[in-house]
Amino acid sequence: MPNDIIPAMTLTIEQVEHIANLARLELSASEKERMSQQLSAILDYVNRLQSLDTAGIPPTSSVLPPRSVLRLDEPHPGLDLETLLRNAPETEADQFRVPPVLD
Amino acid sequence: MEFEAVIGLEVHAELETRSKMFCACPVVDSTVAQPNIAVCPICAGMPGVLPVVNQRAVEYALRVALALECQINHTSLFARKNYFYPDLPKGYQISQYEQPLARHGKLVIVTSQGERLIRVRRVHLEEDTGKLTHVSRDGQAYSLVDLNRAGVPLLEIVSEPDLHTAEEVRQYATALRSILRYLQVNSGDMQKGVMRIEPNVSVRPLGSTEFGTRTEIKNLNSFRALERGVAFEIQRQIEIIQKGGQVIQETRGWDEARDVTFSQRIKEGEDDYRYFPEPDLPPLVVEAEWIETVRRDLPELPAARLLRFQQNYDLGSYDASVLTLEPAVADYFEQAVQAASGIPPKTIANWITGELFGLMNQAGIGIEELRVTPEALAELTRMVVQGEINQNTAKAVLAEIFESGQPAAEIVARRGLSQISDADFITGLVQQVLSENPDQIASYLAGKETVSRWLFGQVMRLAKGQANPQVIQTALDRQLQELKNRPR
């Protein structure tokens, strides 16, 4: 329905908290409020696309030409350990040390 | 109320390519390799890098898809599955979602209830994740990240929920593993985690067509664990429902030590992954010509080989299925049959599935490490069939070949194990035994027929186990008959 008016979206604080959790972000109460407004505004903006008539137009999954670009299965050495771990805030036993993640 | 379980399987199989899925890092055995020894900016998720698809990974995936009689999508799409977890530093896994490489396959399994056709929903390509080690030391908890496995090509094979028992689940997994091994794309080693099986289990009243709430089981690292985990989960859900409770949709881990499943962290739901087409990769186009080449080059698959073994070698379905499960075992059998021309294949099969498998199980080794060559087994079998050694001697000789790899003839000669078939000599031994055991003879003549078996054993003992049993039997029968006929 091309000319329908799309109601303004409002993300609830719970939705913001859920998204923040997925992104592993900790937000203060005022940040949650601000994010709710900003994200809602972004959604409203993007929602304008919904007013376009796209019947008969196949979804564009890629803007690249549909042509396979493949690599031969030939191994090459990666980075040496020192270079790989150089930017890691913490390392231990040749590995990245990160805050605890438990299943 | 009677219940029916409804089970679908997700199988993840690493593809045994030389390099990773989207970068040229070598694929190493992540259970033994030094941590982070095969990692580059691409699989480490550094900014500004681009993935490029490994051609061989696509070819291996096509092999599996075609072996499962799938329809191949000429154009399939890679997608981003977004989640934050340190096992993939990019913050997403490249997978396939809406348009997978292949769909609508099938696999026929054999169970104690007969054949079952299990539909395969989809086969798609993705990348494996890194390995996390959780550490708790001095009151501090943290995790260590090894990215060797991150980006290794991974094939996901998803069945329809067509399975209903733990046995069917096991047979499906076994058949799939066998196919992967025949196709030489995966070793099927569940301990090492290169093949991982995750069943989705739900139960419903028998006759119902609606699905119950399902749970997914993880950490099943053997077929035994798979079968027991599924059986446990079916029973657990039935008991919840019978008590009037409700099954919760969740991921459950298998606790091998306690033989139970337990609730794990509630993970993201499907929507939370925010799948979208991977902007860094063009659609994957697989031309018909490529598919045909792969199809033409497919090896003989386990089901076809099983049928051929039954027909060509006159084997029963049990022997044929045991021999064809592992391609290396099937090759071994065929080489032995070829080397032992004239010996019935069934005899060779018995030696392999009986004695040889027994020795291998005891020593815990696979067919690849076996010192008994197919030719050596053929030679040993021939020696038995032609009466050069008897069955028991042959078993002892086989055990020695198994240890030393020496040829059978050498062992027989060195240890003086040749079978004695000299009828006069054996007749002499029988006479000796009979004359030394008058009491036994008396009870035999009184009607205790079983004594003849004891007498047989005495003769064989005198011959140090090397006498031809048939010659002993003939001589013993004749002399006992004479004693019976003698007027008393």
Question: What can you tell me about this protein's structure?
Answer:
- The complex is a heterodimer of chains A (103) and B (488).
- Chain A has 103 residues and is mostly helical.
- Chain A has a domain at 13-50: Glu-tRNAGln amidotransferase C subunit, N-terminal domain (Histone, subunit A, Orthogonal Bundle), CATH 1.10.20.
- Chain A is built from 3 helices and 3 strands.
- Chain A has helices at residues 13-22, 29-47, 81-85; strands at 70-71, 91-92, 95-98.
- In chain A, strands 2-3 form a two-stranded antiparallel sheet.
- In chain A, a hairpin with a 2-residue loop joins strand 2 and strand 3.
- In chain A, helix 1 (13-22) crosses helix 2.
- Chain A is flat.
- Mean pLDDT of chain A is 84; it is low at 1-7.
- With 488 residues, chain B is of the alpha+beta class.
- Chain B folds into 3 domains: 9-189 and 266-292, no CATH class; 300-415, no CATH class; 423-485, Arc Repressor Mutant, subunit A (Orthogonal Bundle), CATH 1.10.10.410.
- Chain B contains 15 helices and 17 strands.
- Chain B has helices spanning 55-67, 166-182, 223-242, 288-296, 302-313, 317-324, 327-339, 345-363, 374-385, 391-404, 408-414, 423-436, 438-445, 451-462, 469-485, and strands spanning 3-14, 53-54, 71-72, 75-76, 79-82, 92-95, 102-111, 114-127, 131-137, 140-146, 153-159, 195-205, 215-218, 251-255, 260-263, 276-277, 284-285.
- In chain B, the strands form 4 sheets. Chain B has a 9-stranded mixed β-sheet. In chain B, strands 6-5-16 form a 3-stranded antiparallel β-sheet, with no helix packed on it.
- In chain B, helix 9 runs antiparallel to helix 10 (391-404) and helix 12 (423-436) packs across helix 14 (451-462).
- The longest helix of chain B is centred in the middle third of the chain and has 20 residues, at 223-242.
- The model of chain B has no long low-confidence stretch (mean pLDDT 90).
